[in-house]
Amino acid sequence: KIILITGATAGFGKAIARKFAENGHDLIITGRRKVLLDELTKELITTFNVEVLPLCFDVRNLKEVEVSIAGLPEKWKKIDVLVNNAGLAAGLSPIHEAVVDDWERMIDTNVKGLLYMTRLVAPLMVALKQGHIINIGSIAGKEVYPMGNVYCASKFAVDAITKSTRIDLVQHHIKVTQIAPGAANTEFSLVRFKGDKVRADNVYMGYKPLSANDVADAVFYVTTLPDHV
Ligand code: NDP
Ligand code: 8X3
What atom of ligand 1 comes closest to residue 89's alpha carbon? Predict the structure, then answer.
């Protein structure tokens, strides 16, 4: 199979890429940090002997997404699984004190970026009458928490988009799944707190958070189920 994973330079996306490669699948991996993409590409090819196509673009930029997907070599256009994973939290502030630019980044990445990817990849799947779209939501898209306001809203949007995508695409024999993890120790909190490592590490104190591998296992599992499940 060909698996396209957004945000594969770190955290869940990287672990998901390794999991699928370990199981013999070819990968299109994306992210903005080219050096990390190239490193992972080398690692996956050397370790797992699969084919890997790295695509460096920002999911917030519709033009870049369009050019990247339209420019795929023909054989890479037969995407079996799209994992919409790229996303972030920026800041943790009460609604009246938040940084508006943080809101823009979260909505543009978590909501609009996921929509752009889906809009460009889903027609390829529809044409082939097969495919599986997996959106990485969050427990924060099921319930809100203090100062989570816009991050939670962006993940509630992922929840709604997933449900409506499923309704729209089931007739085309395309599966749509949401994985909604709880707190996991990745670069997530370091990004949210803009590099403040002490604050980031604090998030994971006093309990055992999920690991990126736990989430990758769940993502892989749902792709192994028969059609009727
Ligand atoms: P990380 O920060 O570790 O990884 C995020 C990935 O997303 C990176 O590869 C980053 O790549 C990519 N990314 C971010 N912004 C963009 C962009 N504009 N364009 C392209 N790629 C982008 O976080 P996680 O792995 O933890 O998060 C992955 C997803 O899981 C997110 O959607 C997050 O909301 C969700 N999630 C996280 C949880 C957690 O507790 N960690 C729990 C539940 C859900 P690069 O910087 O190279 O572009
Ligand atoms: C990330 C999980 O609960 O830290 O989506 O917001 S949480």
Answer: 34
Q: How far is the CA of 70 from the centre of ligand 2 (A)?
A: 33
What distances in angstroms separate CA 151 from CA 12, 66, 86, one per listed residue? 17, 26, 14
Q: Where are the beta strands (DSSP E) in 160-217?
A: 174-179
**Alpha-carbon gap, residue 185 to 174, rounded angstroms:** 31
Enclosing H/E stretch for 132? strand 131-136
pLDDT digits (tens, 9 = 90+) for 25-60: 999 999 999 999 999 999 999 999 999 999 999 999
Question: pLDDT digits over 101-114, tens only?
Answer: 999 999 999 999 99
Q: Quickly state the pLDDT bin for 210 (edges 50, 70, 90).
A: very high
Structural contact between residues 72 and 98, judged by C-beta atoms closer than 8 angstroms: no
H helical segments located in 23-148 = 34-48, 62-70, 100-106, 114-128
Known active-site residue 151: yes
